[in-house]
Amino acid sequence: MEKEVKPSENTNSKSADFEDNASKYISWGKERSDDKEDFYFKELYDEVLKRFLSHKKSEEVRKKGYKYVISLVGYSAQPILFWHSLVNPLKHFFVCSPETEKTLDRVMEILGYPKPSTWDKVVIKSTDILSIYKNMKDVLKHIGKENWKSVLIDITGGKKSMAGAASVIGQLLNIDVGYIDYDVYLDKQRKPRPGTEYPIILDNPLEVFSDIEIEKAKDFFNAYHFERANEILEGLHGKTRNLLEVEKYKNINDIYKNWNDFDIDRAIEKIKEFQESVKNCVFVVNEGVKEKISQHLSLLEDIKKGFDDQPNYEHFVPLNFYFAAERYNSTRKFDIAVFLMYRVLESIEQVRLKKRGINPSNTTKEQYEKAGLTFDGYKRVAGAVYNNFSPPNGLPKKIALMDGFISLAALKDGIFASMNENAVKTLLREIYGVTQLRNNSIYTHGFTPLKEEDYTKIRRVARKVLNLFLQKEVGKSFNSFEKDFLFLKL
Predict the structure, then answer these.
(1) Which of 203, 234, 257 is the last residue of a domain?
(2) Which of the residues 103, 243, 356, 444 has an alpha carbon 20 to 30 A from that of 189?
(3) Are the CB atoms for 43 and 54 separated by under 8 Å?
(4) Is residue 319 part of a domain?
């Protein structure tokens, strides 16, 4: 009576047979022969494939859902068969040399001669790098760019020149590159032990490149070149797997770009979106960044109130113009910087006139009378400022910058309260002198770009007036606001 074989004994027997056959295959040496390959596919292949497909790395690859495989064909059919069995692609493309084309005979035999529509081949010289690039490009064009995320490039076979070229293509186009690795390598025989193979997806070294590009974007951000920073971050889409890091810095850049563009509402909106993403652990940032952005949300809300003419917040308007001018000066956009410093002076004059009940854009006789400003008082101050002063017919109906400061001086407004008559006259002449810079700008009436020394002149005067204004409005100096208005540095 035949002895019953228990499952465990049967399994152990098969395992022992496999190891014996693997040892026999290994002892064959390095030479290639049909007998050696026939033995491998008859006695080893099924078990090797089974172990390969059950490897934990194979399960990770399977989850990626590749639909197309491009294999470099070498002298061994095994890696091609491993990838084909693991991925089960809609179409398998083979890139081979005249010397390795015959390897496909074995591949087709093992695969049961699949339909011609499910595979294609390209034959090129393995040393012709340009031909490799061209044909790989043709294959990818055939697949369609919209499907590149579903493509795997297998570089296990083929010569090093082919593998190198294919890897570069994959890295540049952000297409995954795969390789068959092994757990056990036999040094003496210089080959992996059958049954220890597993797939790996190679890390894209251009991920390091994306880190470099992010650092570049941060440098542009820190230098207030927000458009350039945005271009770099936008360009990383589709080139890096670390999209959350890119989106984080893009969001931060958008916050300060909108602020710099005076789109205060949009900047506030962007900060709230950013804070929500941090709260939900989408973006990871350090406490310093979170605190600075939170402070700037509060500041932007105050600036918005100032632009809306809410009492006790008007001083934020000239401050915002001042620091915007400083940023544009640092990027050497002197015409814009001068214009913004002019707006510092203009907004100060407008705030102080409104507090006196005078509307600078639509002034009436009644407003002047109520404020206590007389034509004689205006003429007296104006005559001390202008050489060869020619008195107007009456008080201005629409108040320009110098009209406003002359009117404030005539009213002995608070920003002039601590100054004697000569000091008031000197300051008004300084203001008049720098207003001409604005008029000479190519953005107004001039034809020659302004220079750094022009900006320095108007900055000195604007800061002096701003200090006087802040002392009167809130009892603080300019320096007490400087830290709050400085943009985040990454």
Answers:
(1) 203
(2) 103
(3) no
(4) no
**Cβ atoms < 10 Å from Cβ of 188:** 6
* 386 plus 489 within the same structural domain: yes
Residues 297 and 348 in one domain: no
Residue count of the chain, please give it: 490
Same domain (yes/no): 62, 188: yes
Q: How many domains does the chain have?
A: 3
pLDDT score for 447: 55
What's residue 3's pLDDT?
42
Compute the chain's Rg from CA coordinates: 38
**Is residue 209 located within the same domain as residue 354?**
no
DSSP string, 406-452: HHHHHTT-GGGTT--HHHHHHHHHHHHHHHHHHHHSTTTT-SS---H
Percent helix, strand and coil across the chain, each rounded to 5?
60, 5, 30
* HEC sequence for 150-163: HEEEECCCCCHHHH
85 token code pair: 């069995």
The b/e string for 71-94 (b: 16+ C-beta within 10 A; e otherwise) is bbbbebbbbbbbbbebbebebbbb
Same domain, 192 and 225: no
Sign of the dihedral through C-alpha 404, 410, 415, 416: positive
Clarify whether residues 183 and 42 are in a common domain.
Answer: yes
> How are beta strands 91-96 and 119-123 bridged, if at all?
parallel
pLDDT value at residue 19: 87
Of 149, 172, 203, the last residue of a domain is 203
Q: Are 236 and 213 in contact (CB under 8 A)?
A: yes
pLDDT in tens, 443-483: 665 557 788 999 999 999 999 999 999 999 999 988 999 99
- Round to whole Å and give the CA distance between 366 and 345: 25
The answer to whether residue 4 is domain-embedded is no
Does residue 472 share a domain with residue 372? yes
Asked if residue 8 is part of any domain, the answer here is: no
Q: Tens of pLDDT along 94-134? A: 999 999 999 999 999 999 999 999 999 999 886 677 888 88
Residues (pLDDT < 70) of the chain are 1-14, 29-31, 126-127, 188-190, 205-209, 238-239, 241, 438-447
Show the domain range for 415. 324-490
Report the pLDDT value the prediction gives residue 211, as an integer from 0 to 100: 81
Calpha distance 62→42 (Å, rounded): 26
Q: With respect to residue 5, please indicate whether it lies within any of the assigned structural domains.
A: no
